[in-house]
Specification:
Shape: globular
Largest sheet: 6 strands, mixed
CATH topology of the largest domain: Aminopeptidase
Strand order of the largest sheet: 6-3-7-10-8-9
Order of helices and strands: HEEHEHEEHEHEEHEHEHH
Mean pLDDT: 83
Number of strands: 10
CATH architecture of the largest domain: 3-Layer(aba) Sandwich
Distance between the termini: 54 Å
CATH class of the largest domain: Alpha Beta
Radius of gyration: 21 Å
CATH superfamily of the largest domain: Zn-dependent exopeptidases
Length: about 300
């Protein structure tokens, strides 16, 4: 009986060892340098080391079986990092037009303090959606050790204005800032896109390049984590460069807007109103931020 138990244990050890070798070979492509990567996992973010650019897809397939070999949970990976999360709009904006229509400086012009935001055909407001996703991102990033600064924490207020939202991230000296939105595009248009700032002398020249890297990392993570297609009605390949957004123009830290889907499209709206999708969206956004912060050192 003891001899049989010993043989079974040895067999399990051999299978596990072969699994590790196979996982490393697949992740590294058989050679070259290997870089840690974050992927969206059931409990939040999962850091894989070793890993490679193609690792998330490999892990997604592997975790469906009991034989999957994944990294053990490690110590908080974002300790000492600061992230600003900006849930777009606010629940009281629509009933306070004189306040949100007040013009504020955006660096290269003037624009309304804020807007009411979009809503689905069923009446689910963008402000409620962005706060829900923002809080989920906050929870995940804090679990990873980051300090998370929120531009708002309730959905019954007005503003803050777009210039104040940028200043909150600036004062926090955030390593990354992300403004979460859901678009109000054409009903026939689908998908998400990430907006990054145009290089503007005296405004965004210093943050334009890192902001674009943040946009690319977010796009990749949102692709992998949600399955939402890249927007087919705006931008190019899921990215859009703009110079007319005060929240970007006035930022002194790397910052992007992510339009996580189109509330005016029935297919997208069905996803955005689903709490399970919002959790996946939050994990994807957090994974993109984590990857950017890690790469930035």
């Amino acid at each position: 009986m003891r001899r049989r138990a010993l043989l079974v244990a040895c067999g399990i050890a051999v299978v596990a060892a072969l699994g590790v070798v196979a996982a490393v070979a697949l992740g590294s492509g058989g050679g070259g340098s290997v870089t840690p990567r974050y992927v969206v996992a059931t409990g939040g973010l999962q850091r894989l080391d070793p890993g490679a650019d193609g690792v998330p897809a490999t892990v997604a397939a592997a975790t469906s079986t009991d034989a999957a070999i994944t990294a053990s949970p490690a110590a908080p990976t974002l300790a000492g990092k600061v992230v600003a999360i900006d849930p777009g709009h606010n629940g009281g904006n629509g009933s306070h037009p004189s306040q949100i229509n007040r013009l504020v400086d955006i660096g290269n012009g003037r624009k309304a303090c804020d807007t009411a935001g979009a809503e689905t055909a069923s009446g689910y407001a963008e402000s409620a959606y962005t706060l829900d996703v923002g809080r989920r991102v906050q929870r995940i990033l804090k679990q990873e050790g980051a300090k998370v600064v929120m531009t708002r924490t309730t959905d019954d207020g007005v503003g803050p204005c777009i210039n104040v939202r940028a200043e909150i991230g600036n004062r926090a000296h955030a390593d990354a800032a992300v403004s979460i939105h859901a678009d109000g595009g054409p009903t026939s248009g689908r998908g998400f896109h990430v907006i990054y700032p145009t290089p503007l002398r005296g405004l965004t020249a210093a943050i334009a390049r890192p902001s674009r890297r943040l946009a690319v990392d977010l796009r990749g993570a949102y692709d992998q984590g949600t399955g939402m297609p890249r927007a087919d009605y705006v931008g190019h390949d899921g990215l859009d460069e703009r110079s007319d957004l005060g929240g970007l123009n006035l930022s002194k830290v790397p910052k992007v807007f992510i339009e996580t889907g189109n509330m005016n499209n029935a297919t997208d709206a069905a996803k955005l109103t689903d709490a399970r999708f919002r959790e996946r969206a939050a994990k994807a956004i957090a994974a993109g931020i984590a990857r950017f912060v890690e790469e930035s050192g």
